[in-house]
Amino acid sequence: MSKIVWLMGPSGSGKDSLLGALRQQENNQLLVAHRYITRAADAGCENHVALSETEFTQRQKQGLFALCWQAHHQRYGVGIELDIWLDSGLDVVVNGSRQHLAQARARYGKALVPICLHVSTDVLRQRLETRGRETPLQIEQRLQRAAFYAPDSSECFILNNDGSLAESVLSFMRLVY
C-alpha cells in the first residue's frame, strides 16, 4: 500500500533541508510533492509553485488540489497529482501543517504516515538566527509557538533533527520503510 508522509515541524526545524535531501535519494519509490503557495517563487523558502490569489482560487474551484489550507497569511495546496502517484504505487512526502493534520488524516486514513520533526530550543534558535529572515522578536515568537505545538508521539512519529542532515535522512527512511 502506498504511503503519504505528512512531514511537520516548526519553522527552522529543517523541513526544507530534509525534503531537498530526500529529493536526491535514489529511492524510485519515494516522491516529494511540491506545494502550491500564494508566495513569490523567489521568497527564499522551499521549492514550491508560486500562485497568485486568483490562480489559487481558480485551481481550488476546479478541484485541482488534493488538500489545501491557509496559514501564516498564505494559502497552501497539494495538487491532485498526489492521488495519481499514490494510485501508481508510489510513496509521497508532503511538507504538511500540524494544524491541518486532521484534514490529511480524514482524506488519506491509514495511508497517512505523520512525522514530526523535533529540534531542541537551542538548535532551533541558532537556525532561525543563522537564516536571518526574522527579527529577534519574531524568533522568540517562533520559539514559543514551537514549544506550544511540541510533537505528541500519540499523533505522529517523532524524528529528532538536532544532528546532521545525513542522520535525519537515515532516520526518516527507517520510520517510513
Q: What this model shows, in words?
A:
The protein is of the alpha/beta class and 177 residues long. It has one domain: Rossmann fold (3-Layer(aba) Sandwich). It has helices at residues 15-23, 53-61, 81-87, 101-108, 121-131, 136-148, 165-176; strands at 4-8, 30-32, 35-37, 49-50, 65-71, 74-79, 91-95, 112-118, 157-160. The N and C termini lie close together (12 Å). The relative contact order is 0.23. The mean pLDDT is 92.
Quick structural overview:
The protein is an alpha/beta fold and 177 residues long. It is 39% helix and 24% strand.
Number of helices: 7
The CATH homologous superfamily is called P-loop containing nucleotide triphosphate hydrolases
Distance from first to last alpha carbon: 12 Å
Give helix and strand order, one letter per element, not per position: EHEEEHEEHEHEHHEH
Total beta strands: 9
Record the strand order, biggest sheet: 2-7-1-8-9
> Which geometry do the CA atoms define?
globular
Using the 3D structure, state the CATH architecture. Answer: 3-Layer(aba) Sandwich
Rg over alpha carbons: 16 Å
CATH class (first level) name: Alpha Beta
Protein name: Ribose 1,5-bisphosphate phosphokinase PhnN
Domain Guanylate kinase/L-type calcium channel beta subunit: 1-177
Function: Catalyzes the phosphorylation of ribose 1,5-bisphosphate to 5-phospho-D-ribosyl alpha-1-diphosphate (PRPP).
Family: Belongs to the ribose 1,5-bisphosphokinase family.
